[in-house]
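S.,

As promised, the guanosine-5'-diphosphate run. Input:
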Amino acid sequence: MSERDTICALASGAPPAAIAILRLSGPQVRHLAERHLGSGLPAARHATLTDMTDNDGALVDRGLVLFMPGPGSYTGEDTLELYLHGGAAVIAHALETLTAHDGVRMAEPGEYTRRAFEAGKLDLTEAEGVADIIEAETAAQKAQALRQLGGGLSETYDQWRAELTGVLALVEVAIDFPDEGDAPQDTTAPILAKLGRVIGEIETALGDGGIGERIRDGFRVAIIGAPNAGKSTLLNRLARREAAIVTAKAGTTRDVIEVRRVLGGHVVWIADTAGLRVTDDEIEAEGVRRAEVAAREADLRLFVLDASDPDISHLSTDYRLDTDLVVANKSDLVAVPEGIKADHVISARDGAGVEPLEQAIARFVDQYAASVEAPLITRQRHRARLSQGLSSLEAARDALEQDVGAEMAAEDIRMALRQLGSIIGVVGVEDVLGAVFSEFCIGK
Ligand SMILES: Nc1nc2c(ncn2[C@@H]2O[C@H](COP(=O)(O)OP(=O)(O)O)[C@@H](O)[C@H]2O)c(=O)[nH]1
Ligand SMILES: [Mg+2]
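Predicted complex:
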């Protein structure tokens, strides 16, 4: 079998910068250190100041190097870090020098962490935590990523898997010795109790309101209402730029336009949508359909009313009925008519009342995020697998309760173990590894 490639990459930010960190991992690390460092192979885990020379013996740069021998390194392989001056020419010269050797190449995105995962240094949720902490922009995202990186999710999955393995063993005993010992209900009752406990815990985790995914990916706010109410003008106000086209012509907005803000300490996507009216125009009708989807999927809807033309009886849907916040716009033109109950009165054109509206969005998001402490699910991938696992366990419970066969129950529990195992990456992960690691940056 041929040796694994040695990989190298710039692990620090784009040049020019004070320092460039180049990272190397793989079987040729020792050889490369001996070949290119004035110090020769540095003492393990000791910062060493040395020259680096290229393949012709010319100086590349002078800097600190750190050698971390495998298996006690991040990737489990021999690794070397070079701390050079963070200029583009230095980085290019160093990488050219290293990749000129056979079997040494630039790393793929996330390849260091992938090797760490393959070496058993971290499980898949911990690896995802590494990607998330690099992407984290808000304190809440960072806290969630740190918890995940530290095995906060793995613990729960490990515990469930251990309990289910115990349940499976009991079911298998019942299969192997069907006629011995107690009556079936005496052996089935404790199995059902244990199974029921895990099912209950998974149901609780799944019923978290999607907080973990929202903290990671952003909360969703949809601006909806009649054509010409001033939805796009409000979006531009909230975006603080001209993100959406504003005209006096009804039916201007068709695509859903989203802008990103940090409000209440969380990422919030605010969507402008097409006015919800019945229309013969094919493109506008598609826009209305998209608006309805955005409204349904949003965590909070802002229903914008034109105070100077508040009649909404002609609208295509009744989304206004379950609207969370009613916003009366164009307060610069007229006072809000009697009988219209608005949570906020604004002039999107002048900006009056927009700041309190922003604060209301921030409060909503903050409270929503605080409604579940330390959510277990932080990605759609986890939710999908966990729901499948739950279905399998429910099938196992039904089979046991109806006494249709311990064998079927055992198969369902095995299936659930595989589904839970795939979340932390202990089984059946080939299909997800590419997707998980491709979203990393190079050098991590
Ligand atoms: N007087 C006044 N006009 C506004 C206000 N907000 C929007 N408009 C105008 O109303 C029209 C429709 O605005 P637009 O944002 O495109 O509405 P949309 O169809 O709901 O997206 C445009 O001519 C805007 O300039 C406002 O607060 N006051
Ligand atoms: Mg519009």
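The longest strand covers residues 59-68. The longest helix spans residues 152-176.

- D.
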